[in-house]
Design brief:
Blueprint (H helix, E strand, L loop, with lengths): L19 E2 L5 H11 L7 H10 L4 E5 L5 E10 L20 E9 L8 H15 L4 E6 L4 H6 L3 E2 L5 H5 L6 E6 L5
Parallel strand pairs: 4-5
Antiparallel strand pairs: 1-2, 2-3, 3-4, 5-7, 6-7
Length: about 180
């Protein structure tokens, strides 16, 4: 289980940062955002909810003007060499994680361009540090690979092909070290 992170200390969400913790009642909105942004990568609602339940501190919502999910983050401790396959249950988090795995950062077009991705990365970097981890890792879809490269992520070799294939033939596993100040 990924413990909740207290709301005090250096890794709290800055007041200007609109991200908030994901709640169970956000899941229909998360599924709707995912369906709109990732139609080629469908995932079951309960698979997404399992990630929220296993690691509440790694799952966030970016509210739209009406307070509904306009973006979300699903993330949790993981293992660089064995990212989870798409639309699969984790059951548990790894006992000895070596990275903070970003399952998804998804933001509707109307909310882009305001630094929300940067803010989300700042939050998950703080979570990784609180867990003593030194890497962020993710699976980049072809459309998002340029963004992740721009944000300092580099490709990872030797990921099991059957896992990478669940994200499509052009998916790219990537990671970024957490150096001081990032």
């Amino acid at each position: 289980m990924c413990p909740s992170i207290p709301s005090t200390g250096p890794t709290t969400i800055p007041p200007a940062n609109p991200w908030r913790p994901m709640r169970a009642d956000d899941l229909d909105g998360v599924v709707a955002v995912a369906a709109q942004l990732h139609p080629d990568y469908p995932e079951r609602r309960d698979v997404l909810d399992e990630r929220r339940r296993l690691c509440p501190s790694g799952c966030l919502i970016l509210p739209d003007a009406r307070g509904n999910p306009g973006g979300y983050v699903l993330s949790h401790p993981g293992r660089v060499a064995s990212p989870p396959a798409l639309d699969t249950y984790l059951h548990t988090l790894p006992e000895q994680p070596d990275c903070w795995y970003i399952h998804d950062i998804a933001i509707l077009p109307a909310l882009r361009g305001q630094g929300a991705t940067r803010d989300a990365l700042q939050i998950v970097t703080g979570r990784a540090r609180q867990h003593g981890l030194h890497w962020l890792a993710l699976m980049a879809t072809p459309a998002a690979r340029g963004l992740w490269t721009h944000l300092g992520f580099t490709p990872i070799a030797d990921i099991p092909p059957h896992i990478a294939a669940t994200y499509g033939s052009e998916a790219c596993p990537m990671r970024r070290p957490l150096s001081p100040g990032t």
